[in-house]
From TrEMBL:
Protein name: CubicO group peptidase, beta-lactamase class C family
Annotated Beta-lactamase-related domain residues: 16-320
Lineage of the organism: Bacteria, Bacillati, Actinomycetota, Actinomycetes, Propionibacteriales
Every DUF7586 domain range: 350-433
Disordered: annotated span: 444-465
One Pfam family here: Beta-lactamase
Domain of life where this protein originates: Bacteria
PANTHER family tied to this protein: D-ALANYL-D-ALANINE CARBOXYPEPTIDASE, D-ALANYL-D-ALANINE-CARBOXYPEPTIDASE/ENDOPEPTIDASE AMPH
Amino acid sequence: MSDAPRLLESTRRALDHRLARAQAEGRAPSLAAGLVRDGSLVWTGAAGSVDGAPPTPDTQYRIGSITKTFVAVLVLRLRDEGLLDLDDALETHLPGTTVGDRTVLQLLSHTAGIASETPTPWWERTDGALRPQVADVLGPEPRILRRGRHFHYSNPGFALLGALVARRRGRSFGEVLAAEVLEPLGLRRTTLMPAAPHAQGFAVHPWADLLLPEPAHDSGWMAPAGQLWSTVEDLSRFASFLLDGDDRVLPLDSLREMREPVAGTEAESGGYGLGMQASGGPHPLVGHGGSMPGFLAGLDLAVDDGLAFVAFANVTAGPDLGGLIEDLAEVVRTAEPRFPQAWKPLPEADPELLALTGPWYWGATPYAVKLQADRHLELVTLAARGRESRFGPEGEGTWTGLDGYYRGETLTVVRDAAGAVTHLDLGSFVLTRAPYAPTGVVPGGVDPAGWTGDPEGTPDPPAER
């Protein structure tokens, strides 16, 4: 990762202190974390020990369900290559399961309505050889909810996606992952099985400060649900990729699609996208958590601030890594806020576009159109509340909504026979230069009498007494 200015010493101390508190209060044998800012790993921290010494940025930990984000990247690569559509039924690409009518999108977003876990025994603590066929990850009745209606987290769902990737590529999941993601991004210490130096996973006794080693098996077909091991250094590289994209692996537009929620979770805000989960609130984070017996992990992006955080602990339960990352983000956001991009004028004036700017009215509701770089337009409300969106240019006189309520909708500049602009058409909504302008373009027409005062007339003043 590229060199970047270091954090202020006071910021580093605050981050180190918060990490140390998480390790002590969470009773984790060790805890390690890293911070990426604008593409560079600018801070790493560690507390506790692995094999008698503090963990380093090269110490491997099991990252659990963060593996699912890697799987989603592989599936989106297949989509971008035209080898599948997210609305395809699973049966199209992986025949022979009992949930073949579920779509790729539903599996990626945990809306397929299938069971959260495999049949007994618990897959996280047993050898994958117990399930020799991909269909063995599903129980006799894996359909437990109506598809597409609910968010219901499913580990077998991502096992099926991993099997789909392997079938489409004609190689094992691990081979595809290495060739298409790990090698291009330089993730040399991210592996399906541990490679020294690595942490041993432990459970901590609930009523005594004692440790019990946790087993680590090859999960077989369930590996795509949560088997990967990684390091602070490697996972920070992956986090930087998730922030900015890399055309060798996946472009930024596809990563933005992964980050966008498809389904709401049981939390009050946020939601789950495609292998990534978004939090709500004024400073949202998007990423994924992970847990396996003996390990906890977290990866989150603060996209608007250009920040990414990773954290690991070698303990089954204890530290709240999600809360830790939120606090680390707040430390950096408060101590070293990101500078806004400097304002600069447009490179040239376009009289026709400039003529579209200024106030417009949807009925009697005031809006304004602003001109941005690269012929983009922005619709903003001038009322207390209203719908706002940005629009990208398409053809002559048309723009497509990029976000907000009008995302995907077409904005058209409508002209009369003489070429003068009469109104804007936004998905059948008409915007005119004056409120309910009597131009004949307002749906339903406009009363020819125009705007009037009180239709009942002006009341007589009260009589003097």
